[in-house]
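User: Could you walk me through two proteins back to back? I'd like the raw sequence and the structure tokens for each, with a short line separating them so I can tell where one ends and the next begins.

Assistant: Of course. Protein one, sequence then structure:
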Amino acid sequence: MKLLKQLFDFYINSSIHVALSVFSLTWITLIEFKLPFDVALLWFVFFATITGYNFVKYFGVAKFHHRRLTSRLKAIQVFSFFSFLFLCYYALQLETKSLVFVALLGLVTFFYAIPFLPRHFFVDNQQNLRSISGLKVYLIALIWSGVTVFLPIVNDSVEIDSDIILTGIQRFVFIVVLMLPFEIRDLQYDNLKLGTIPQKIGITNTKIMGCVLLLCFVIMEFFKINPTTLFKEVTVLIAIIALLFLVFSKKIQWKYYSSFLVEGLTILWLVILMVVNYLG
């Protein structure tokens, strides 16, 4: 049991789970817009997510405590290095315009972790984008929607229409909602000056905000020009599950409630789509 727990913790802490979540959302976009199954694109997204997330999470630790790193963190560093190599391999198989698009998103990720602006912009001495009051959730949602919606579209040279734009907005809204249980959990750890959504409006109002956003998420599906009944039904189901996760989230929650259950909702979304497609 101890070994299983260590493996599971490595699965979470090394960002494999979040990478599968982003991988799943990208695959959902391919299904929704009837794009060809693109192995290189999906694996690029998977390994890029691991590389990016681990860079953001562990950059400060590795920079200032590299001589005292635990064996677990060293293992994550090694894993991240090999993930970066795979990222480079699959990047070579993408279109040039896709790489330009990814580079722009990569710059946002880089500055999210690296100090680069004057101190008066920040709430602490980190001097990176994640330290700017209230910005974190929206940056993450922007990057996720860019990677999971617009990268497949750009890579397949599909003309961007109203349905694609609506899907991008939907995805942004959905990711913001998924971040809310994390924000509620982190109330006990976050600097009060960070200006997170629960810090600004409280837990109850945060949940109300999330409910309104989920309603918008569902309504947008019905404004699409070429929606399928399958996507409408699955969208409603996923919104209901997300709503339940949000309603039952609290400041002191099960260790894996947000990092595994909430973050795994997009994986469940993909599984439901594939099962329904298969049965249909």
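----
Protein two, same layout:
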Amino acid sequence: MLRAFLLNDCIEVGCDEAGRGCLAGPVVAAAVILPADFENSLLNDSKLLSEKTRLFLEPIIKESAISFGIGVVSEREIEEINILNASILAMHRAIEKLKLVPEHIIVDGNRFKPYNDIPYQCVIKGDSKYFSIAAASVLAKNYRDELMQELHLDFPHYAWDKNRGYPTKVHRNAISIHGPNKHHRMTFNLLGGTNQLDMFS
């Protein structure tokens, strides 16, 4: 069973992102504040959950949360500030959407930047240790998957309904045939080589 909080005597928010390793689409983050008595035996790191389970958990998380927020950073912003800074910016934007100001932030991973001087702690594999980070990972993943599903309707040959923009063989093969579009991150290694910027310029 995951733990409720890192610190028990304050308003603590958990943050996580989805889409950092994708070749296309935005990076999305969520921030979730859960009540002290929240428990759910199904909730875990979104990467360990089936899509069916993630979708089942989403309304439970939203109805149980004291507050939650979603932050999105576009493909073009990713290219301007790099994916690490974009992931952190997405988490900042998610925290901005909260209805109350947290007193402590816990973040999945090992990198973060201060947000409004609120104390924070990075937690390696935090999405498999704390309910709030796991909840954020589920909300971020579901939100981004839905975005990619919508983009798939306009660009079906990339199979974003299945790969969600990640660098699968099918996705990369489609890029090699059709070229990238406006949703691809041109600073990323689209084809698995290093010359895509020249090839598609």
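The radius of gyration is 17 Å.

Let me know if you want the two compared in more detail.
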